[in-house]
Amino acid sequence: QGGSASWWNHLHNQHHAKPNCFRKDPDLNMHPLLFSLGKTLSIELGKGKKKFMPYNYQHKYFFLLAPLAIIPFFQLSVFYFAIKRKRWLVRMCFNSKFGWDLRYDKCFCVYLPRYLESHWFIWVTQMNHIPMDIDYDKNEDWVSTQVHATCNVKQSLFNDWFTGHLNFQIEHHLFPTMPRHNYWK
Predict the structure, then answer these.
(1) Boundaries of each Fatty acid desaturase domain copy (predicted)?
(2) Would you tell me the crossing angle of helices 88-97 and 58-84 to the nearest 10 degrees?
């Protein structure tokens, strides 16, 4: 996605510490700007009459809008991380590589492939998390938190290949350093 390894590790470690916990999992930062996530948070939005988007149609616009939104979301996240952590080299590389230049050749060679890759990223990550409980932190033990926030997708040769073995999301969360090709074991 154009970020540094330290940026990715920081976000991913936060996600693994408290998956699907609102205000603790950085993957939920787009709620409620674009999507209404989870029963508790959706009811809270409804009672507060906070309507940013037509959430009753989010199942129709998710496919197009989520991958499109993740590109600037990641770019802003990398920029914020570089400034907050004083990672000046990351910031310089980010600015030179993924600036907001909208020339035709850059759009075609950089942003179109990133948009297509974002479709894969959204589908692989969200099919294992969105169906599960999304709520505030319930202070459960670590194992319970991982199991309640993730689910596996049926194993097949195609699913193993397409997801890079991340169809075993429960195992990925319980054993994050295990090589992915061993999750099925």
Answers:
(1) 2-183
(2) 130
